[in-house]
Specification:
heterodimer, A: mainly beta, Porin, about 40% strand, B: Immunoglobulin-like, six-stranded mixed β-sheet, 6 helices, globular
């Protein structure tokens, strides 16, 4: 019965298509590129026939099996039988039987003056509008530590710090990042600062333009920085940066991480970082080619979203020329550490 | 219905005042909102403001509920603000004094009035500066349930809201007793801080995400579906931005713990004037096991519709009539993401309570909420990613961000998706209520009690896209953020126009137009429901016909306060082309 009713309303929709409340005229079929919609692969049973412009559809391929979820003409609740209620997600549309299709009169041009100016004064209202717009502009400060951790390895215990601060809005931000690593009682192995302008390029990715300065290792180096960061499909946070030093050497760095939510508060975060050098930099112990990578996994417990202690493990590996340099220094190019730390931001 | 003798009432009020004091409440409740109120039909209820001259004072307060205390901004020291009760046909002068150290304002939500009395700083007037008084002065040309709130910054989220009831000129009444129910959300976290945290982390307040533990337990989407959604960077649990994680939900300023109770006598027809004054919470509203008859929507009478539950979006009002059968009935307002609920009680005497139902399971969004019309089909039943070419719908062939479907949208980082096939959802059962097993109100069921005043078919139509990047937490209309001062949306005086709202996001947006009522385009013309706010369901479309009969500049925005504040707002301007504009 319902199927028949639905069919009836579907054919009515087809007949009355130009004059329905659903208003197909707002979908510019002329501009709609149907070639991008692969009708061959599309299961028509999944589509709301009440809404479709049937003239473009292959009725032969209609699979009506899914149509019983629509519930046409369910207008008065009083008529609904509780026991037999259709818990469909949506109701079929009723098509008006009288003309209801809007005309195509042109829209007026937006005025350039403001109605309230005539009552409260143009200056007063101009100031008020400025206040309104600026009040709705988002410009705020953020400070956070992604990593603040204690590391236990074969040798002396060490630490890693990574954090950032930004000031700005949705599109443009001034960003400062800091990262460092070392063993307790020793000078830090690395201490790196980055300062860059972050600009939103599209919904998901941002451009970074700025500078990086390494206080450690010795000798200090300053680099120009260009990067892309963002959120890739599958919720993968990605960050790719290229650096050119004041000595002309070029380096690339890529990072990717992903939050795997085990429970609402327990999150496992694997991370991979890869460093590549385009040339040997012997004074920094860097060999050309794939320089080093780090694989790590951290299990954090979000007491609050912005306050989460964690434990984890990290494997850092120097490769190629960098590994040779490390061995010459008597270091092991491969290092596995256990870690525990705190992630927080405010 | 008159109240029992005034002595016992006074004693009772004193008692509940003591209760409020015991709870550490700084902001007191007005009498109509107090626990154990006998309702408003009692004559001369104290703290109900009536007459032609009304004084309101905006100030800072502390507010405590459910064991938490925070900063609140209140009117005359109460949260909610005092009930303003007026009569159709009268004039009113409302002198609003701002004792804050920042600008403030009051907007009379749903009242038809001259635009310069509408109370939106920067649009209709300059605002009320610190220490200043502004006198609003206008005639009441309608009756029904309305409300008022600040339109400055995010003061509304901090408590500056209250109810307005306008009685019909003829005094007609079809009920024995009435209660006002102001639903709201209260957080001790400042709304600006909520916004900043959402900008840093879009899901900051969502504690109901899909987890690996859930996957292993067979809950929610299966792995294939999860991967498909992850590929699109869409979260099917992203139903509300600010949630019960930080909010305490309130009925008339009372949390469940404080169990707001309205009194009735057996056999009475009780009218409930429900107002959703939340800043960020749409509610599922019901009185378990007690049918309700919806008699008005957004203040205006509708043909009575009996139902068991309704979803009341932010800024909407509904009048329902119930005939309680038991000694106590729960009044349940559940956040649509099921992160919390608030319970009040209708009872024959104070101290009774009905059982509190368990919060129902958090719904999951579907492809329909993404603007891919799947006729409500459960993707999990049909989509087999292991065989992408086997007749399953090929989503890769349907772009989630094809600008040709929305030529009027300014593309940029703030527009993450465009609904490829938005469908009219005015007849849909709202999100999460599809399978509750009882009747649920839909917009399509609402028919105006009076014939629509303007029978003309619209002379033109305009498409407005509700756009967002939920991950960056950017919100806009047609891709334009209001802080960039986009040009107003123009209408000619008395022009009749169809406005198509297309939701390109996966969240519902309660869109409010100031100064007008519009007809929702659903079913036959002639008795379409008149509304001032329409909740546009995710990925869907809602059309309304507007007769632009009120000259001036009017605010037009999403009533999710953080969305509005982030840019989902425009000015609508109505000008007399033949004259002075």
């Amino acid at each position: 019965m319902r199927l028949i009713a639905t069919l009836a309303s579907a054919s009515l929709a087809a007949i009355a298509a130009p004059a329905t409340a659903q208003d197909h005229s707002t979908m510019d079929h002329g501009e709609m590129d149907h070639s991008q919609m692969d009708h061959g692969e599309m299961d028509h049973s999944t589509m709301d026939h009440g809404e479709m412009d049937h003239s473009t559809m292959d009725h032969g391929a209609l699979d009506l099996s899914a149509m019983d979820r629509t519930n046409p003409a369910d207008e008065t609740v009083e008529s609904v039988d509780h026991g037999a209620m259709d818990h469909s997600m949506h109701h079929g549309m009723e098509m008006p039987t009288v003309p209801d299709q809007p005309g195509d009169a042109p829209a007026p041009l937006p005025p350039t003056d403001h109605a309230a100016d005539a009552i409260f004064g143009a200056d007063v209202m101009a100031a008020s509008r400025d206040h309104l717009y600026s009040d709705m502009e988002f410009t705020r400060l953020f400070i956070g530590f992604d990593l603040l951790e204690y590391r236990v390895a074969d040798g002396p215990d060490g630490y890693v710090v990574e954090g950032s601060a930004w000031y700005g809005g949705d599109i443009d931000r001034a960003v400062l990042t800091w990262s460092g690593e070392g063993e307790f009682g020793e000078a830090p192995e690395t201490a790196e600062l980055q300062a860059y302008w972050r600009h939103a390029l599209n919904p998901w990715f941002n451009l970074q333009l700025g500078a990086r300065h390494d206080i450690r290792p010795d000798p200090e180096r300053t680099y120009a920085l260009i990067g892309i960061e963002g959120l890739a499909p599958y919720w993968i946070e990605a960050d790719a940066q290229a650096f050119v030093s004041d000595k002309g050497d070029v380096h690339l760095r890529g990072k990717a991480m992903h939050d795997m939510r085990i429970t609402q508060r327990l999150v496992f975060e694997p991370e991979v970082e890869v460093d590549v050098a385009l040339q040997d930099v012997p004074e920094l112990g860097i060999g050309a080619g794939l320089d080093s990578f780090e694989l790590s996994g951290r299990l954090r417990y979000e007491i609050e979203r912005n306050f989460a202690p964690y434990v984890g493990v990290s494997w850092e590996r120097k490769v190629g020329g960098s590994a040779d340099f490390a061995r010459e220094e008597g270091e092991n190019p491969s290092r596995v550490t256990l870690l525990a730390g705190l992630r927080f931001w405010f | 219905m008159t109240c029992p003798d005034s002595l016992s009432r006074r004693r009772f009020i004193a008692g509940s005042g003591a209760l409020a004091a015991a709870l550490g409440s700084g902001a007191l409740f007005p009498a109509w909102a107090r626990n154990g109120t006998h309702g408003m039909t009692a004559t001369n209820m104290p703290e109900v403001l009536s007459g032609e001259d009304i004084a309101l004072t905006i100030g800072n307060s502390r507010f405590s509920t459910a064991g938490r205390t925070g900063h609140a901004i209140t009117v005359n020291g109460t949260l909610p603000a005092p009930l303003i009760r007026l009569r159709e046909g009268q004039n009113v002068r409302l002198a609003v004094t701002n004792t804050l150290d920042e600008q403030s304002s009051i907007h009379w939500h749903g009242l038809l009035l001259p635009f310069d009395m509408d109370g939106v700083p920067g649009v209709s007037f300059p605002g009320i500066d610190a220490g200043e008084t502004f006198v609003y002065d206008f005639p009441l040309i309608q009756s029904g349930t309305y409300w008022y709130h600040s339109h400055s910054g995010m003061q509304e989220a901090m408590g500056l809201y209250g109810p307005i009831v306008v009685d019909p000129a003829d005094g007609a009444r079809d009920y024995d007793r009435e209660h006002v129910l102001v639903l709201s959300d209260f957080s001790t976290m400042h709304p600006h801080e909520q916004l900043r945290r959402l900008k840093v982390m879009g899901g900051y307040f969502n504690q109901q995400r899909q987890t690996i533990a859930g996957l292993l337990a067979g809950e929610g989407q299966d792995l294939a579906e999860r991967l498909e959604w992850a590929q699109m960077r869409m979260d099917p649990t992203d139903i509300s931005d600010v949630t019960g994680d930080t909010y305490t939900y309130l009925v008339n300023g009372h949390s469940s713990m404080e169990n707001w109770t309205g009194i009735f006598r057996p056999g009475e027809r009780v009218k409930l004037r429900i107002i959703n004054a939340s800043s960020m919470t749409n509610f599922n509203f019901r009185l378990p096991d007690l049918p309700m008859t919806v008699v008005a929507a957004d203040g205006l009478a509708v043909k009575p519709v009996e139902t068991d539950e309704l979803q009341i979006a932010i800024a909407e009002t509904y009048d329902v009539v119930v005939t309680p059968r038991e000694e106590a009935h729960g009044i349940i307002a559940e956040a649509i993401d099921r992160s919390g609920q608030v319970r009040g009680t209708l009872a024959t005497r104070v101290g009774l309570a009905a059982p509190i139902p368990e919060i129902r399971k958090r719904p999951l969004l579907t492809m329909r909420d993404m603007g891919m019309d799947m006729s409500g089909m459960d993707m999990g039943d049909t989509l087999d990613l292991s065989q992408p070419d086997s007749g399953a719908m090929d989503h890769s062939s349907m772009s989630m961000r094809d600008p040709s479907v929305a030529p009027e949208v300014k593309m940029g980082p703030g527009v993450a998706s465009l609904s490829p096939m938005p469908v009219d959802r005015l007849g849909d059962i709202p999100t999460g209520l599809e399978d509750v097993g009882h009747r649920v109100l839909t917009y399509a069921q609402l028919r105006s009690a009076e014939p629509n005043p303007d029978p003309r078919v619209p002379s033109r139509e305009v498409d407005l896209h509700l756009t967002a990047n939920m991950e960056r937490y950017m919100w806009s209309i047609n891709g334009e953020d209001f802080s960039n001062s986009p040009p107003p949306i123009p209408f000619r005086l008395n022009e009749r126009v169809r406005v198509n709202l297309i939701n390109d996001t996966m969240m519902p947006h309660p869109i409010h137009l100031h100064g007008h009522f519009f007809e929702l385009v659903s079913g036959e013309p002639g008795d379409r429901v008149l509304k001032h706010t329409v909740n546009v369901l995710p990925g869907g479309k809602a059309s309304f016909d507007l007769t632009a009969d009120a000259v001036g500049d009017w605010a037009f925005h999403c009533h999710m306060l953080l969305h509005m504040h982030s840019g989902m707002m425009r000015v609508v301007t109505v000008r007399d082309e033949g004259g002075d504009g």
